[in-house]
Design a protein that fits this description.
The relative contact order is 0.16. The protein has one domain (2-153): Aminopeptidase, CATH 3.40.630. The chain has a six-stranded mixed sheet, with helices on both faces. The N and C termini lie far apart (34 Å). It is built from four helices and six strands. The chain is an alpha+beta fold. It is 29% helix and 33% strand.
Amino acid sequence: MTDDLDRIMAVMRVAFDPEYGEAWNRRQVEDALLIGNCHYLLAGIDGEAPTAEAPAGEVAGFALSRHGFGEEELLLFAVAPRYRRRGIGRRLLQRFAAGAQDRGAVRLLLEMRRGNDAEALYLAHGFRPIGLRPHYYRTLSGPRIDAITFAWGEEN
């Protein structure tokens, strides 16, 4: 898992804009994975799990989720900027949904900051906004941004 954690952190460093403070540190990711109900996926350049032929240690993206009581929450989802707009995020989101359903989830949840470019991807995959947390995120420059909660599946 250490190699995979290194890969997750490499994508995290380049994928999340520091202005929004959304990236997790290594300890946060490690702690989440130790809990036992958290799961991760790595994406190669085709959105599938990386193969042995992939450049050593390099992945295009990752997803981290937490499962519980028929629901699964997407905690972190990222594709490295140089791999965006190639369908990797779409395929990774499909793999996340399939894995969550295999674990018994009938409802998928995620939360994102208003204005996040990934919103179009989530909407195209069938996620719908179900809630709002006003001024939830604080930017480095000071302004606060709303968080939007999305759901897919039962009781959407």
